[in-house]
Amino acid sequence: MSQVSAGTTATVERDAYELTALDRCDSCGAQAYIRVMIGESELLFCAHHGRRHQEKLAAVATSWHDESRRLLEDN
Fold first, then answer.
1. Where exactly are the structural domains of the chain?
2. By the 8 A CB rule, do 43 and 25 touch?
């Protein structure tokens, strides 16, 4: 696990956990691709809102799990 700092796009693999279509963005309800841990609390974001809030969250996040690369993969 690694820490998040402002301006980074680190991918954190906390465990084998993978976000699914059932995981929804806390901001808009779209499919979540980013999971942010703040202490014991979890926030889920779509790629758009994850990037939008990354700078502010970086100051308090304990981990940043980013699967937004899946949006670019061929199916």
1. 1-75
2. no
